[in-house]
TrEMBL record, chain A:
<comment type="subunit">
    <text>The main subunits of complex b-c1 are: cytochrome b, cytochrome c1 and the Rieske protein.</text>
</comment>
<dbReference type="InterPro" id="IPR006317">
    <property type="entry name" value="Ubiquinol_cyt_c_Rdtase_Fe-S-su"/>
</dbReference>
<dbReference type="InterPro" id="IPR014349">
    <property type="entry name" value="Rieske_Fe-S_prot"/>
</dbReference>
<dbReference type="InterPro" id="IPR036922">
    <property type="entry name" value="Rieske_2Fe-2S_sf"/>
</dbReference>
<dbReference type="Pfam" id="PF10399">
    <property type="entry name" value="UCR_Fe-S_N"/>
</dbReference>
<feature type="transmembrane region" description="Helical">
    <location>
        <begin position="20"/>
        <end position="41"/>
    </location>
</feature>
<keyword id="KW-1003">Cell membrane</keyword>
UniProtKB/TrEMBL annotation, chain B:
<keyword id="KW-0813">Transport</keyword>
<dbReference type="InterPro" id="IPR005797">
    <property type="entry name" value="Cyt_b/b6_N"/>
</dbReference>
<dbReference type="InterPro" id="IPR005798">
    <property type="entry name" value="Cyt_b/b6_C"/>
</dbReference>
<feature type="transmembrane region" description="Helical">
    <location>
        <begin position="126"/>
        <end position="148"/>
    </location>
</feature>
<keyword id="KW-0812">Transmembrane</keyword>
<keyword id="KW-0479">Metal-binding</keyword>
<feature type="domain" description="Cytochrome b/b6 N-terminal region profile">
    <location>
        <begin position="14"/>
        <end position="224"/>
    </location>
</feature>
Automatic annotation (TrEMBL), chain C:
<dbReference type="InterPro" id="IPR002326">
    <property type="entry name" value="Cyt_c1"/>
</dbReference>
<dbReference type="Pfam" id="PF02167">
    <property type="entry name" value="Cytochrom_C1"/>
</dbReference>
<dbReference type="InterPro" id="IPR009056">
    <property type="entry name" value="Cyt_c-like_dom"/>
</dbReference>
<keyword id="KW-0408">Iron</keyword>
<keyword id="KW-0812">Transmembrane</keyword>
<keyword id="KW-0472">Membrane</keyword>
<feature type="transmembrane region" description="Helical">
    <location>
        <begin position="262"/>
        <end position="281"/>
    </location>
</feature>
Length: 180, 433, 290
């Protein structure tokens, strides 16, 4: 672009220095454009108020055996399930070889609290919310595209590629968890 | 310039394929190689600056619209949320708010340049008329945008300006209610203002395309104001790129420095403190003033002692610009060669500044000292009201009387035969690029 | 064309732009000029292009706000977490995020937030969290007005931007309570303040000298020693007024110092950019008369 003019003028003596100036000016213009564009792009990232709600606390005693409570975390549902002994037994006894996305039940719960399952309530296929108790494996069934999950929230049948996601959480006390 | 022949030769196969189907590269290349009068000075860089202003306003505006909530209960807080919580939101919002002022600084200088160098005269009438339309749309867009933060000035500005419509005989009242979507400025008004504020910039962008189209049909004016004959083209013009891209680029950077000074160091200097008080339909601020760029027109509105008359005068002040090409009777374009007219022009600029100043004052306040003289048509002679009236009279006289008469009676100085003549002889006393 | 004419041309353009900008500035004081005194100058550290907030002052100011102002004035747009944003009074470089700041979490816990019980749906009061807004002392504007003799205490979130003079105005107002001037007819529930906007002419006897200032519904809010500062600063009225004014100035635009710092960088960049482009321009136009 700009360089062609330099050659047209035909003052070849210090051509490299001249080229450098034009290239530097062009580079600075590109830099200025990027500087203008970046804040605009970055502004679409989560804002401070959204980030401040990144973690919530929950009292586990609110869930009774055989029940699940759905809580909203970061705009998404989280299933907190107090599994019955039978459900727990089923989850533990399933051999890993039977699983599409092999993961032991023990790795999906916190030690000493294995009756409580905490998973994100979005199907790993395309994000619909599975319902409990209607699938072939005693766990969840996603009505959108027919994915079946077991009592550990692991995918057993259907198009979903992975197990229901266990969010990052920790026990603050024996009965209180903090998600996120 | 208008009959500029394309020198673009498609090189690769893709370029050839595209050139017969959608010759967009040819269009761009022709634009870049457009022969441009080489004597264009820095006053001609405001076109490029304005294009950048429009891009900045649209880009920041689209982002702000992602975070803004057009609801009377939430608008004010959502704007402050942008300033506090959205990443870089303070910069984006202040850029947008000050960008409006920068836009108007540039457009006023651009218009004064056109006025001084006779850029509106044949064969460039359509460039000027479309330009006036853009200016009018800019005012409308800026007014609509100022309402969105829903502060006290937003609310009361909207109240006062929409009430102007009510001045129209017979249909005024129903049109006013229709415009507001209710008996008062409220949520319905805010929502439609937001919608229109988002729409109008794209209408402006469309008008800019027409503006440039007209420019390339008629060819660029230049400080000497003569048409460049075909046989002089090689001597008197240079390709737009790189000669004017780099010159415009340099001017743009200087302009951005001024812009940055406001955004980073005094973002609220051009605004009004009252707009940081949430809108309250029950309390009017002590002193309602529009943004600085509307002040001259606001002053004209107040100069007329009749409601409908004031509205007519205000719109007339913009309307008269549209017919300017037919009010100027001079055969000479550039005021460089019209010493009499130049004096009137300088006076016009001063009067414009005075009108702006008056628009920010209380009409009854005395101009000189604190003494009173005598009252004439609702106001003391020593008051801003009367200063505004004199200035308004000059504003209209400049276009309606001075321009036609001076054009007929003046003796212009000798106009050079080519634009190279003054350039090579060292130029005249005037500013050059 | 020579370099000189070029620079002259540029200067002229800049002067014109500056004049246009100057007009708007000149227009501003004309609006602000009321009957009030020239404001007192708090000598604030955050003024000027390189100024920044004094953290200790902001912490003291927050304490004054929390213990004095907050009993009547809301600050609806402020969240506790904002106090721990970079540049804020309680910013800690080791914090994971502003919402995880330990001081802010402790400060938030001191207040009670109205909420809805997630199970019963009943209104409850719970401890504040860093993500919460500052609680409003009144349930709504009508209640605020009713509790204060008809004048609702204004929200302080953006107060420094909402008044000409910003922090200096707040500082002046808080220290501007003086003895009622002789002859001034003052209505019950009103107080005289020499920095308040207004015109006292109608309330003075005919022909008497009209004092500066106006009426304000808020009684003098600060008394010496009212707040016990954690950093052993003596809590005089002047000190408290200055501190709370600085705090409100910060709260009105929490990112102002960072923005100024960015601005210095941007201007340096633009200056270099302009220099390079000017050289490029000179090269390209070399030998072309214009």
């Amino acid at each position: 672009m700009a360089e062609s003019v330099v050659t047209e003028n035909g003052e070849g003596g210090d051509a490299t220095r001249r080229d450098f100036i034009h290239i530097a000016a062009g580079a600075a213009a590109v830099g200025a454009g990027a500087m203008l564009a970046w804040p605009l792009i970055n502004s679409m990232n989560p804002a401070a108020d959204t980030l401040a709600l990144a973690s919530i606390e929950f009292d586990m005693t609110k869930v009774q055996e055989g029940q699940q409570i759905v809580i909203k975390w970061q705009g998404k549902p989280v299933f907190v399930r107090y599994r019955t002994a039978r459900e727990l037994q089923e989850a533990v006894s399933t051999p890993l070889s039977a699983l599409k996305d092999p993961e032991a039940d023990a790795d999906r719960v916190k030690e000493g609290h294995s009756q409580y399952l905490v998973v994100l309530g979005n199907c790993t296929h395309l994000g619909c919310i599975p319902t409990f108790g209607t699938g072939d494996f005693g766990g969840w069934f996603c009505p959108c595209h027919g994915s079946h999950y077991d009592t550990s929230g692991r995918i057993r049948k259907g198009p979903a590629p992975a197990n229901l996601v266990v969010p990052e959480y920790a026990y603050l006390s024996d009965t209180r968890i903090k998600i996120g | 310039m208008s009959d500029h022949e394309s020198t673009y030769v498609p090189k690769t196969g893709i370029e050839k394929w595209l050139d017969t189907r959608l010759p967009i590269i040819r269009f761009g290349a022709d634009y870049m190689s457009l022969p441009t009068p080489r004597n264009l000075n820095y006053w001609w860089t405001f076109g490029g600056i304005l294009a950048l202003c429009l891009v900045i306003q649209i880009a920041t505006g689209v982002i702000l619209a992602m975070h803004y909530v057009p609801n009377t209960e939430m608008a004010f807080a959502s704007v402050e949320r942008i300033m506090r919580d959205v990443n870089g939101g303070d910069l984006i919002r202040y850029t947008h708010a000050n960008g409006a002022s920068m836009f108007f600084i540039a457009v006023y200088l651009h218009m004064l340049r056109g006025l001084y160098y006779g850029s509106y005269k044949a064969p460039r009438e359509m460039i000027w008329i479309v330009g006036c339309l853009i200016f009018f749309l800019m005012i409308a867009t800026a007014f609509l945008g100022y309402v969105l933060p829903w502060g006290q000035m937003s609310y009361w500005g909207a109240e006062v300006i929409t009430n102007l419509i009510g001045a129209i005989p017979v249909v005024g009242e129903p049109v006013l209610i229709w415009l507001r979507g209710g008996p008062a400025i409220d949520n319905a008004t805010l929502n439609r203002f937001f919608s229109l504020h988002y729409l109008l910039p794209f209408v402006i962008a469309g008008c800019v395309v027409l503006h440039l189209w007209a420019l390339h049909a008629a060819g660029q004016n230049n400080p000497v104001g003569i048409l460049i004959p075909k046989d002089r083209q090689a001597k008197d013009t240079v390709p737009f790129h790189p000669y004017f891209t780099v010159k415009d680029g340099f001017a743009i950077i200087l302009f951005l420095m001024l812009f940055a000074l406001f955004v980073f160091f005094m973002p609220n200097a051009l605004g009004h403190a009252d707009n940081y008080i949430p809108a309250n339909p029950l309390v009017t601020p002590a002193h309602i003033v529009p943004e600085w760029y509307m002040l001259p027109f606001y002053a004209i509105l107040r100069a007329i002692p009749d409601k409908f008359g004031g509205v007519m005068a205000m719109f007339g002040a913009i309307g008269v610009l549209f017919v300017l090409p037919w009010l100027d009777t001079s055969k000479v374009r550039s005021m460089r060669y019209r010493p009499t007219m130049r004096t009137f022009f300088i006076l016009f600029v001063i009067v414009g500044l005075i009108l702006g100043w008056c628009g920010a004052q209380l009409p009854d306040a005395p101009v000189i000292g604190t003494f009173k003289t005598f009252t004439l048509i609702d106001g003391d002679l020593n008051s801003y009201l009367w200063l505004t009236r004199f200035a308004t009279a000059y504003y209209f006289a400049f276009f309606l009387i001075i321009m036609p008469l001076v054009g007929l009676r003046e003796t212009p100085r000798t106009i050079p035969a080519t634009i190279s003549e003054p350039v090579l002889s060292g130029g005249d006393a005037e500013m050059k690029g | 064309m020579t370099l000189q004419t070029n620079i002259r041309a540029m200067k002229k353009t800049l002067v014109l732009i500056a004049a246009a900008a100057g007009l708007t500035f000149a227009a501003q004081p004309a609006l602000a000029a009321g009957e009030a005194h020239a404001l007192r100058n708090g000598g604030f550290s955050f003024e000027g292009p390189f100024g920044s907030f004094d953290r200790n002052q902001l912490q003291r100011g927050y304490k004054v706000y929390r213990e004095v102002c907050a009993s009547c004035h809301s600050m609806d747009l402020m969240h506790f977490r904002t106090l721990a944003e970079p540049g804020g009074p309680f910013f800690d470089s080791h914090q994971a995020s502003p919402a995880e700041n330990r001081w802010v979490k402790a400060l938030a816990k001191e207040v009670q937030i109205a909420d809805i019980d997630t199970e019963t749906g009943e209104p409850v009061m719970r401890d504040g969290t860093a993500a919460d807004r500052f609680p409003n002392p009144y349930p709504n504007a009508t209640a605020a007005a009713a509790a204060n003799g008809g004048a609702a205490p204004p929200d302080l979130s953006v107060m420094a931007k909402a008044r000409h003079g910003g922090a200096n105005y707040i500082y002046s107002l808080l220290t501007g309570y003086a003895a009622v001037p002789q002859g001034l007819q003052i209505r019950p529930g009103q107080h005289y303040n020499m920095y308040m906007a207004g015109d006292l002419t109608p309330f003075m006897p005919e022909g008497a000298h009209v004092p500066p200032g106006g009426f304000i519904a808020m009684p003098a809010p600060l008394t010496a020693g009212q707040v016990t500062y954690d950093d052993d600063t003596v809590a005089s009225v002047d000190q408290m007024a200055k501190d709370v004014a600085a705090y409100i100035a910060w709260a009105s635009d929490p990112r102002q110092v960072q923005r100024k710092q960015t601005g210095v960088g941007v201007l340096i960049f633009l200056f270099i950019f302009a220099g390079i482009t000017y050289l490029s321009y000179r090269r390209i136009w070399k030998g072309v008369a214009h």
